[in-house]
Amino acid sequence: xxxxxxxxxxxxxxxxxxxxxxxxxxxxxxxxxxxxxxxxxxxxxxxxxxxxxxxxxxxxxxxxxxxxxxxxxxxxxxxxxxxxxxxxxxxxxxxxxxxxxxxxxxxxxxxxxxxxxxxxxxxxxxxxxxxxxxxxxxxxxxxxxxxxxxxxxxxxxxxxx
Length: 161
Prior knowledge:
Blueprint (H helix, E strand, L loop, with lengths): L7 E7 L4 E4 L5 E14 L6 E12 L2 H10 L5 E14 L5 E9 L5 E4 L15 H6 L5 H8 L14
Parallel strand pairs: 4-6
Antiparallel strand pairs: 1-3, 1-5, 2-3, 3-4, 5-6, 5-7
Function: Plays an important role in DNA replication, recombination and repair. Binds to ssDNA and to an array of partner proteins to recruit them to their sites of action during DNA metabolism.
Organism: Hyphobacterium vulgare
Pfam families: SSB
């Protein structure tokens, strides 16, 4: 039995254009925030309610950074899969501060653009869709599900329980 799992999956919209910076190593890192919202109808008043959560995302995978840099913009709808990481830093007064981010490293991370292709969206993550089509044995329905951000993989591969 596996000891633990640290996996985050978010589907939401970018709150601003991605910020891309160069590290000392020359590699790039991209960061942005994603808004996820849930809506419900209040049982007492019948009014429609909405709650929005903001999530900070940081990308270290160079292929995914390129996609974020070239194709994502404020309002883009994305599917993000990564890990939670908390880092500690100090403010100007020397007080310890903490921030928790969804981090996309080189392995076990994904980014899929969920906007329509006409709006600059489509499937991403550093892969070329044309390469996938040559060896793609999925049905048309499975392809449509994948384009909408749903994965139809065999789920029995490495379940930790």
